[in-house]
Amino acid sequence: MDQLLADHTPSATVTMAYSPALIAPASGGLGESWHYGFGLWQEYQGNPYAGTPGSRLSSPGSYGAYPFWDKSKGYFGIVARRGAQGTFPEGVGIERSGRSLAEEWAVLP
Questions:
Q1: Fewest beta carbons within 10 Å, which of 22, 35, 48, 101?
Q2: How far apart are CA 54 and CA 57, in angstroms?
Q3: How far apart are CA 86 and CA 70, in angstroms?
Q4: Which is nearest to 39 in space by CA: 66, 19, 53, 59?
């Protein structure tokens, strides 16, 4: 599990042309500077990268599904949608619009 959740690109330079997370929103991407693990995105950013590898993980699908795990806050979920190919930012947007509610729910006794 440690290897799965580790940041496997801590010092790599990922070019915008090859990363849907990095591509600007105007061009159909997310405009994020996430790093990559084994089959999942490490959702933290900055230089040096802020956050702890394995604290928030996701794997947006091309058609808009968005599975995510916020390990640091103790919840996970999936936005299950089927849009046109390349609409993954819409699934991420749906999750982000409800994230504060999920975080409130996650801390209920």
A1: 48
A2: 6
A3: 24
A4: 59
Which pLDDT does position 58 carry in this prediction?
A: 92
First to last CA, the chain: 27
**pLDDT digit string (tens) for 21-73?**
777 787 878 888 788 778 888 887 655 566 677 788 999 888 989 999 988 88
Cα–Cα distance for residue pair 91/29, rounded to 1 Å? 12
What is the sign of the dihedral through the CA atoms of 63, 74, 11 and 30? Answer: positive
Domain spans of the chain, in order of start: 2-106
* Strand order across the 35-36 sheet: 35-36, 41-42, 56-58, 66-70, 75-79
